[in-house]
Amino acid sequence: MEDAVSENIERRRFLKCLGASSLIIAPLGCSSIEEESDANKPHYVMVFDQNKCTGCGECKDACNVTNNLPDGKSRMIMEQQSGGVAGETCPHCGKKNCDCERKYVRVSCQQCKNAPCVTVCPTGAAHRDEKTGIVTMDASKCAGCKYCIGACPYDARFINKETDVADNCDFCLNTKLSKGELPACVQQCRYDALIFGDANDPTSYVSKLLRVKDSVRIKPGFGTEPSLRYIPIVKLGV
């Protein structure tokens, strides 16, 4: 029960970041000097298309099984939001508090290029994988100090109580990517709402997608440079 309450609090904190004031259009072409210098290295990103997600939760289930996570903990969560305005009549159905404008958002580690969790870790347990650049954990070095959890501005890290090690979404680095497979959530999604690949490869699908689609990042003003991009709901005219 305590785990569930804690998880709900973390989700609510994260979702505050998804307000209109914190979503800023951030096309992939806007590169920093550091990104340009690392152009020859892979930059793995994940794109979540809010227009395609149905909130089925199969991606979360696949992640939990693949990464052997304990009950009550997940590396990613699908959170339902409502696009309607409280107290106002829905223009689609004429009712109040309906689900006509419901939408879903992926809540997980943002895989920041400038990751605070890596910076504050005193043992080097939270680190960037040398080959892929993905933020991950070295379980043998984790002291359980929770510094990385406190430093994460997205409240997307937790202590795995079965291993006593801090945990985060690392794009299934050791369970799928190392085998040449896509992350479990991407494989499981039946609606193509999740896209994964190397953004530094101009021929990759994810790179081409981000060149033609406007995407947003959570609180880019923090300077963390998240690698998780969101394609927000597009409201079509009548």
UniProtKB/TrEMBL annotation:
Q: Where would I find the 4Fe-4S ferredoxin-type domain in this sequence?
A: 44-73, 101-131, 133-162
What is an example of a GO molecular function annotated in this UniProt entry? Answer: metal ion binding
Q: Name one Pfam family in it.
A: Fer4_11
InterPro entries membership? 4Fe4S_Fe-S-bd, 4Fe4S_Fe_S_CS, ET_IronSulfur_Cluster-Binding
Swiss-Prot/TrEMBL keywords: 4Fe-4S, Iron, Iron-sulfur, Metal-binding
4Fe-4S as a keyword of this entry, yes or no, is: yes
Please list which residues make up the signal peptide.
Answer: none
- Looking at the UniProt entry, the stretches that span the membrane are none
Q: Does the keyword ATP-binding apply?
A: no
Q: Spell out the PANTHER family in the cross-references.
A: PROTEIN NRFC (PTHR43177), PROTEIN NRFC HOMOLOG (PTHR43177:SF3)
Please identify the protein, giving its name as recorded.
Formate-dependent nitrite reductase, nrfC protein
Instruction: Please tell me the species this chain comes from.
Output: Shewanella piezotolerans (strain WP3 / JCM 13877)
Q: What is the lineage of its organism?
A: Bacteria, Pseudomonadati, Pseudomonadota, Gammaproteobacteria, Alteromonadales
